[in-house]
Design a protein that fits this description.
Order of helices and strands: HHHHHHHHHH
Strand content: under 5%
Structural class: mainly alpha
Largest sheet: none
Helix content: over 70%
Shape: globular
Length: about 210
């Protein structure tokens, strides 16, 4: 699933609840957070809450805290993009920053508008840069806030709860890496549906 230092269970066992919230915040709106394992981290969080391993908070509290961290991260990304957006698009590539990631998020935002704030939550890398693009594009703040709360809550609660209930299934526990891959694939379904709708609208009528 990737480098050992990005293994969700290892991260949680080392940094606990605070580590989870910091990583969710960072992946939601910091330029350097795009490589963090967001979906698999939340799924594993739900699994460990169910097991009572490393995490002993109730599920409702975990969902509330994770959602708040996700929303706060996007708010930071929006503010950062609104303040530094124009200069970001002129920034040269570095080891932690690639213009292609910003461009991809920009195209995603242009295609879906306000809905992209919700949809991007379920797309790795894109979810990190979309709030920054929204800020740089001077998206109306109240509109952004509304979609941010909806997206952050749906992602933070949805993936965590999924991990909580599926994590109690023996098959899931025995095939956790396979399940994490499946979670990422499932998270792309809403985007695939939107792409199909867009193609149908563009296709010529007979």
């Amino acid at each position: 699933m990737g480098p050992s230092f990005l293994d969700p269970q290892s991260l949680i066992s080392t940094f606990g609840l605070i580590g989870i919230l910091v990583m969710v915040f960072a992946e939601s709106g910091l330029l350097i957070g795009f490589f963090l394992p967001g979906d698999s981290l939340l799924f594993t969080t739900g699994l460990l809450v169910a097991d009572g391993t490393y995490l002993h908070q109730p599920l409702w509290l975990m969902c509330l805290l994770v959602s708040a961290a996700a929303v706060a991260g996007d708010q930071f990304g929006y503010a950062f993009g609104r303040r530094f957006g124009p200069s970001l698009f002129r920034r040269p590539d570095s080891r932690l920053f690639k213009q292609e990631n910003l461009t991809r998020a920009g195209e995603f935002f242009a295609k879906y508008g306000a809905r992209s704030i919700v949809l991007a939550r379920f797309v790795p890398i894109v979810r990190t840069f979309t709030p920054i693009v929204a800020g740089a594009s001077h998206m109306h703040y109240r509109t952004f806030l509304l979609y941010n709360v909806i997206g952050g809550t749906a992602w933070g609660c949805g993936v965590t709860i999924l991990g909580y209930f599926l994590g109690q299934v023996t098959f899931v526990k025995s095939n956790i890496e396979l399940i994490l891959v499946a979670i990422v694939a499932i998270s792309l379904i809403p985007v695939a549906i939107e792409l199909l709708r867009a193609r149908r609208k563009k296709s010529p009528r007979h």
